[in-house]
Amino acid sequence: MSGTNAEWRARSLAAVWHPCTQMKSHETLPLVPIARGSGAWLYDFDGRRLLDGVSSWWVNLFGHANPRINAALVAQLDSLEHALLAGCTHRPVVELSERLAALAPPGLGHAFYGSDGASATEIALKMSFHYWSNRGRADKRGFVSLAGGYHGETLGALAVTDVPLFRSTYAPLLMASAVVPCPDARRGTANRSAADIAIDAAAALEAHLERHHATTAAVIVEPLVQGAAGMVMYDAEYLRRARALCTRYGVHLIADEIMTGFGRTGTLFACEQAGVAPDFLCLSKGITGGYLPLSCVLSTDDVYAAFYADDAVRGFLHSHSYTGNALACRAALAVLDIFRDDDVIAANAARSQRFTALAAPLAAHGRVRHSRHQGMIWAFDVATDRPDFARRFFAAALERELLLRPIDRTVYFMPPYIVDDAEFALLVAGTRAILDAE
Ligand SMILES: Cc1ncc(COP(=O)(O)O)c(C=O)c1O
User: Fold this and answer.
1) Rounded to an integer, what distance in angstroms lies between the CA atom of residue 160 and that of residue 171?
2) Computed over its alpha carbons, how large is the radius of gyration of the chain?
3) What are phi and psi of 229, to 5 degrees?
4) What mean pLDDT is predicted for residues 138-166?
5) Other residues' Cβ atoms within 10 Å of the Cβ of residue 84
6) Ligand 1: which atom is nearest the Cα of residue 119?
7) Residue whose CA is closest, atom 7 of ligand 1?
8) Residue 380, SS3?
9) Residue 132, pLDDT above cutoff 90
10) Calpha distance 352→358 (Å, rounded)
11) What is the pLDDT of residue 30?
12) Which of 26, 133, 184, 350 is the most core-located residue (most Cβ within 10 A)?
């Protein structure tokens, strides 16, 4: 691989505007040039390696340069790279839609595709509003989301996102939407369980819907884990109650499983742990194993039927050029093959138990608060006064060959599912050393 880290860093800073970044911060924080990836490791141009402890922004499931996904993509390249999906169809998109419908919670048999996660959120919001409008209820146009929720950065998605850092600047551009309390399990005490917190938060949702259901189209939630809020975890009871309330008040439930889907919380979809089926299921990130941008919104027969008519404008006239891209769908099919052939959910259950045992010394660390775990996500908050904690931790982790990006004062591990015990132990040992040195 030609060039040095310094060369690629300089060229990138001159030509590339990096996402979610104050570019000036790179005057002091080194940009990390990646030359190649293999398994759970990324390699820079100077031959140093980094353990990808965050699955490259929560997308990678089976490692970088996975031979099985690579082979599927090479085979697909020989037949069809892409064809428009309006008026045409192709094998990968049909097979993927059939398989997702079979694997998802029951009743979600209609797959509409987008590219990134935010486009799935936009699709679900627009579809929900349009559903009610087609049913003669155009007044049902409001959305409800949870405190701390994150659903993407486009204007519609940002309107239902409650992370001030991303939202505040653009607030004047955003449609109004309601925020209800999050059932954050960290609020639990010896006398109040996570389920109690969930019941209280559901009561707040009920109070809101009781008053506003006539003007509300949908409630949108990240099931079980709110990622961008800092891996906030909550009890499945909340989802059960939210589902029942949405049904009772005639409001859609949108499950944003863009981060939680594809095994991340221990089941293929987080909704399974509550035994609920949403009206819309948003998927992206892990869907292609971290290879290609693809998102999908699964919806019900009832939703689909509301759009099925002679009148063109009753149809869902939404599109992206790369909707249902054949290569991305083929990567997704390869990912589903791996889940099936390797019995990944069962293997992860055992892996997750071993990793939790390996992380035990961290949970007991004096600076660690609210150590928590769900499936293949481990997180804890750090008792620190340093406002620049996340940035310092990131830089210190790089020194120890670890790619970890705390969210504010929350450190989390979200590794690809192929990390072994020794690699996970590196994440734990490195993190301990950094906390000790802080
Ligand atoms: C729950 C959730 N929804 C939506 C998104 C937005 O996805 P994307 O960044 O692909 O637009 C994210 C991204 O982190 C997410 O975690």
Assistant:
1) 11
2) 22
3) -70, -10
4) 98
5) 13
6) 11
7) 117
8) strand
9) yes
10) 10
11) 87
12) 184
